[in-house]
From TrEMBL:
GO terms for biological process: intracellular phosphate ion homeostasis; negative regulation of phosphate metabolic process; phosphate ion transport. It is found in: Cytoplasm. Its main location: cytoplasm. Homodimer. Keywords: Cytoplasm, Phosphate transport, Transport. It comes from Phenylobacterium soli. PANTHER family: PHOSPHATE-SPECIFIC TRANSPORT SYSTEM ACCESSORY PROTEIN PHOU. Belongs to the PhoU family. The gene is phoU. This is Phosphate-specific transport system accessory protein PhoU. Plays a role in the regulation of phosphate uptake. Residues 1-85, 102-186 form the PhoU domain.
Amino acid sequence: MGGLAEAQVVDAVDAVVRRDVPLAQALIVRDLRLDDMQADIERRALSLIADQGPSDEDLRRAVSTMKLAMNLERCGDLARNIAKRSLVLSGSDPVLPLMSAIQRMGRLVAARLREVLDAYAAQEMDAAMAVWRRDEEVDEHYESIFRELLTLMANEPDTVAPGAHLLFIAKNLERIGDHATNIAEILHFQLTGEELSQPRPKVSLLEADRPRDTPQ
């Protein structure tokens, strides 16, 4: 399921950048498989909990698996949303200056998802937490695209419609990055039985605009 979700993200970005209508259409159909897999994992985890009286460790693993599947299914939904917007963009003039930025952000998010899934599979909390600590990098990419798109749309009215779709695409990628950090937190809970106490590293547009010496 993790491999499929990662492939959905990569293909969604490729569909946008290459204006690949068949790829986007195939991705939208493939998303149904993620939904089915999540439902199957949830049924099996609930059956384990109900029928086998699992130990605390096994119970955490079952609950964590359900949370992981939910996050992966949501990544698939966000990739599907990107694919749908790529279909709209395929019929308009491309916003060329921002396509490379969308591609870079997409590759970064897909890499983060792959890294945290590898960490989860290997039960390596340090590797998962390294992804968690680098969440700001995804936020910074989103912020940069957000600002560039607003400037472009303000100066070139013809770019407003495609620019709005790219804004939503960038936001969906940022949210996929959030799901990658969710998975790191899920593994932390599974292995330790405790929630993370420190706040998640985040960059917000408001914080970026605030002078450094202004009290928060």
